[in-house]
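Problem: given the chain below (104 residues), write out its structure.
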Amino acid sequence: MNLAGIILAIIAILVVGIVGLISFKLGQSTQKKNQLREEQATNSSANEIIADAKKQADTLIKEAKLTAQEDNHRYRSNVENELKKTTFRNSKAGRQIVATRRGS
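Solution.
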């Protein structure tokens, strides 16, 4: 082989090496972009799930508060009714005692 053939072979090897290196770097870049895109999609999906869970939790809290308020109102009404009945019985009994003492 002569000197020109050797130089041509070296140039060909260098060109193939450079093209290989460029291809490798492009592949890495493409892979990073794909991973980033997938990560963003995953994060978006996770954020949607979290937002939905927060809405559901808020709804459950509101429902629990409303139920507690209704139970409290019902309990208060029952207590007030019992108090009215007891007050009425006590005042009736008091009037009977006074009437009995006056009659003695």
